[in-house]
Design a protein that fits this description.
With 364 residues, this protein is of the alpha/beta class. The chain contains ten helices and 16 strands. It has helices at 2-9, 46-49, 67-81, 113-123, 125-131, 153-156, 182-185, 190-200, 208-225, 273-287, and strands at residues 13-22, 34-38, 87-91, 139-140, 164-167, 173-177, 242-246, 256-257, 260-261, 293-296, 303-307, 314-318, 325-332, 335-342, 345-350, 353-361. α3 packs parallel to α5.
């Protein structure tokens, strides 16, 4: 199925491999099942796009050539052609960027969010309609930038607030999905975050009281940063994240490609790896789970980071995002050439193999 997926995806997009890890220790040996992860899209309204030095790479072109709607339609067809239950699609949070619709989002009255959300949806209708199509049945997480969707009943019933997890053949959870913003709060609220994780990874019902507590923590964190008032302080003038060498997926036959290992990679490349391992260890101790792989968005820095320094595998799969620009190396005429690429990544998990791919519009 994986080969077929890449062959068909390459008909609508240029597909490059960012990172690959195939290891039986992942513990998800399901040959007939594929999981696809779409990270941060950060859709916001056309009116607000004019106010920011910031670009989401999901905009709909007049000729219908925008990549995201094509990707969603492709996933819908691929899912239908390969038995709906065998292809599972997840959006990892920050689908909408509600926070950029106003300079001070923490001061917005809860009743005003419905209109703000509808303004974003109207500006991104083709992408939105494809992703929320009932036939695609995308599984949604909430990120910090779209957490206020929980205030709207139609979203509250559909969106998860923290997690999905995947179990091995024995039924024990071994991999968890989360937005990734949790790790930003980790040092600030260690006791509270531990409680938060254990709560959501345990088989309990949603608690509105608990959601309100999280809501207040998110708002307080962003208010103290205050960055939504200053529209110029975005990442265009910062050092670009280096994706490394991008290659055609079919050219990589080995099980490991461009993995960032503890003890070898830079601090930036290993960002959140240690926190994820420590936090999942606490969850495992409380629940009896064996979580050893975290799949996240939030950072917009696509990579696969690994810690197996104690002979036990722990994997952080950062699926990247659809905002900002990165640098990468691509082979041209026998030489590696450094280029800038607009982030548009997806993650794919299939039969103990996890990959992150960079997508670009198909050249005519």
């Amino acid at each position: 199925m994986n080969k077929k997926f890449l062959e068909e995806l390459s008909r609508i997009a240029s597909v490059k491999l960012v990172a690959k890890l195939k290891d039986e220790r992942i513990g998800l040996n399901y040959p007939g099942e594929m999981r696809i992860f779409i990270p941060d899209l950060h859709m916001f309204s056309k009116a607000r796009q004019q106010d920011f030095n910031y670009e989401c790479h999901t905009n709909y072109n007049e000729d219908g050539s925008a990549l995201l709607p094509q990707l969603a339609q492709f996933l819908l067809k691929f899912k239908t052609d390969n038995n709906d239950k065998n292809v599972l699609v997840y959006q990892l949070g920050d689908l909408l960027d509600i926070w950029r619709e106003t300079a001070k989002p923490w001061d917005i009255d809860p009743g005003d969010w419905q209109g703000i959300v509808q303004r974003i949806i109207r500006s991104n209708a083709p992408s939105w309609d494809a992703l929320v199509d009932d036939s695609l049945h995308t599984n949604f997480l909430l990120g910090n930038h779209d957490f206020d969707l929980h205030r709207i009943p139609t979203f509250y019933s559909r969106w998860q607030f923290l997690r999905y997890y995947f179990s091995d053949e024995s039924g024990t959870p071994v991999a968890g999905l989360l937005h990734g913003d949790i790790f930003v709060w980790y040092e600030r609220f260690p006791d509270w975050i531990q409680q938060f994780f254990v709560y959501h990874y345990s088989p309990k019902d949603k608690s509105k009281k608990f959601i309100k507590k999280l809501d207040n923590a998110i708002r307080d964190t962003h208010k103290r940063k205050g960055k939504y008032v200053n529209y110029e302080e975005y990442d265009d003038h910062k050092e670009l994240f280096d994706l490394g060498e991008l290659v055609a997926p079919q050219d990589v036959t080995e099980d490991v490609w461009n993995i960032k290992r503890k003890g070898e990679a830079s601090k930036k490349e290993l960002k959140h790896l240690g926190k994820a391992k420590k936090l999942f260890s606490r969850v495992n101790n409380r629940t009896g789970y064996k979580l050893h792989m975290a799949v996240i968005g939030h950072t917009h820095h696509p990579r696969i980071a690994v810690d197996d320094s104690d002979d036990e595998l722990f994997v952080l799969v950062d699926c990247g995002g659809w905002v900002k620009t990165s640098k990468a190396s691509i082979e041209k005429e026998g030489n590696l050439e450094e280029v800038e690429v607009k982030n548009a990544q997806i993650g794919v998990l299939y039969n103990n193999e996890v990959c992150v791919y960079q997508l670009s519009p198909k050249e005519s």
